[in-house]
Amino acid sequence: MNAPIPRISIRGLSKRFGHKVILDHVDLDIMPGKSTTVIGMSGSGKSVLIKCILGLLKPDSGEILVDGENWLGLPEHEQLHRMRRVGMLFQAGALFDSLSVWENVSFALLRQGVDKKTAKSRAIEVLEWVGLHDIEDKVPAELSGGMAKRVGLARTICHKPDIVFLDEPTTGLDPIMADVINHLIVRLHKDSGTTILSITHDMKSAAMISDHIALLCHGSIHRQIAAHELESDQDPMLRQFIEGRAEGPINCSSWGKQIEEAIQR
Ligand SMILES: Nc1ncnc2c1ncn2[C@@H]1O[C@H](COP(=O)(O)OP(=O)(O)OP(=O)(O)O)[C@@H](O)[C@H]1O
């Protein structure tokens, strides 16, 4: 029997800025319908990884295969067409200030030419799914941080993507609102079988929303485990990260140097 094809397969992905190597031959497979979370220290390259996958940054080398097809090798219009399958929740929400909540939520649908009435009605449906009622005509400035994050999540899934990327879905939220977001992500995953790739350093969130957890460290995926192995896995780097210890095999000196340089500037 043939082995199942990963929904997303990252092969030998490398990216540097000047002399600074950020990603160094990253390999990662995400199977259809699975939720994988990449964890790693601040500055380890998690956002750069997602930006490379989304085509927002050009990697120096490597492949990103979706259902076996190399998206990086496609002409731009083909890439844009494929991106209809993708939803992205940005860390800072990235809502457009000048658009109403419903226009933000249905942005992808409106760009695809869906008529306004249908788009608004779908936006209201998804807003209700994230627990928000009667806010479709508000503007982002009127929303609390937790509401804005839920609006961002509604926008991510409004066009029914089957692949979703989540950049720090709980950052900046109080613990209760973070729990609400985590539950919504779990529901999205269970109800629709969406393939999810998240990046976070919130370990509670990672444990809750993931089938698999991958540690990005020193430029590559150092270890990948099932989420239920998080407490028992004895890999020294993984333990250091989970337990939040400055001392250990993860080399923090380059970050220390960056902080020193920033202070001196
Ligand atoms: N466009 C860019 N030009 C130059 N350097 C960049 C650029 N984008 C990211 N970097 C550098 O790449 C490194 C990794 O950044 P990245 O944002 O991916 O980290 P991260 O793991 O997502 O961190 P955090 O958890 O704090 O969000 C950082 O040192 C950052 O300064």
Automatic annotation (TrEMBL):
Residues 8-243 form the ABC transporter domain. It comes from the Bacteria. Pfam families: ABC_tran (PF00005). Keywords: ATP-binding, Nucleotide-binding, Transport. InterPro entries: AAA+_ATPase, ABC_transporter-like_ATP-bd, ABC_transporter-like_CS, P-loop_NTPase. GO terms for molecular function: ATP binding; ATP hydrolysis activity. PANTHER family: INTERMEMBRANE PHOSPHOLIPID TRANSPORT SYSTEM ATP-BINDING PROTEIN MLAF (PTHR43023:SF6), PROTEIN TRIGALACTOSYLDIACYLGLYCEROL 3, CHLOROPLASTIC (PTHR43023). This is ATP-binding cassette domain-containing protein. It comes from Mariprofundus erugo. The lineage of its organism: Bacteria, Pseudomonadati, Pseudomonadota, Candidatius Mariprofundia, Mariprofundales.
